Amino acid sequence: MKLFVDTGDVEEVRKAAEWGVLDGVTTNPTLIAKSGKGFKETVLKICELVPNGAISAEVIATDYETMLKEALEVSGWHPQVVVKVPLIEPGVRLVRTLSERGIRTNVTLVFSVSQALLAAKAGATYISNFVGRVDDLSDDGMVAVADSVAMVENYGFESEILVASVRHPLHVVQAVNAGAHVATMPFKIMEMMFKHPLTDIGLTRFLDDWKKAGLSIG
Ligand code: G3P
Q1: Phi and psi of 142, rounded to 5°?
Q2: How far apart are CA 110 and CA 159, in angstroms?
Q3: Share of residues in the chain with pLDDT > 70 (%)
Q4: Ligand 1 pocket: which of 34, 130, 171, 190 to mutate (most atoms within 8 A of CB)
Q5: 64: CA distance to ligand 1 center in Å?
Q6: pTM for the whole thing?
Q7: Domain presence at residue 68
Q8: Taking the chain, what is the end-to-end CA distance rounded to the nearest angstrom?
Q9: What pLDDT score does 218 carry?
């Protein structure tokens, strides 16, 4: 499963990229606004920090013609840019157009299998299925993820199911169990994935024993 970090903060991207396990970055208008930096400059910096990674940059318009103009603009910034498009009628039409032109897309704000089916049929590269926002409503967001993974696999669609709106490491584990292709998460969740108290206790014991024995390497 690919791991993406969901942020507009280039310092977070830099730290996550250093770990050598980062496959891409997703941004959205909220995250870019929060970064306090310009959209293009942030996206280009992220592309530089994650060579070969898929970097999602979202269009803002909601009418087809302006969405297409914005999509061509952001996709022209860098070959790594993936155009993020909301799951609305002009968005699905846009994904079809972009896919015919060989431009990669990430369809966002997907909450149901029927929405995912439309995105897959339009030729979406990634389908961002949100889980946390559904869990917030006392429902199980991961159900649509598992069903959408089965849907793309049963019918041979090339789209990858991307688990978004991840709130804790258990969502990442559930994404793995559902066979999702990608999970994107805030930097702090990626940091939390390293954590296990037995790792800390075990390492302390190893180092204490080594020190007591007066050993050294080399
Ligand atoms: O970028 C899309 C998604 O990951 C946003 O998550 O936490 O705002 O529901 P959240």
Answers
A1: -75, -15
A2: 13
A3: 100
A4: 130
A5: 24
A6: 0.96
A7: yes
A8: 38
A9: 87
User: How many distinct structural domains can be found in the chain?
Assistant: 1
Name which of 1, 44, 9 is nearest 188 in CA terms: 9
CATH code, domain with 148: 3.20.20.70
Give yes or no for residue 150 having a pLDDT over 90.
yes
User: Is residue 167 assigned to a domain?
Assistant: yes
Pick the catalytic residue from 2, 37, 84, 195: 84
For residue 67, give its domain range: 2-213
CA of 66 to the centre of ligand 1 (A): 24
pLDDT digits (tens, 9 = 90+) for 26-71: 999 999 999 999 999 999 999 999 999 999 999 999 999 999 999 9
**Per the domain annotation, does 218 fall within a domain?**
no
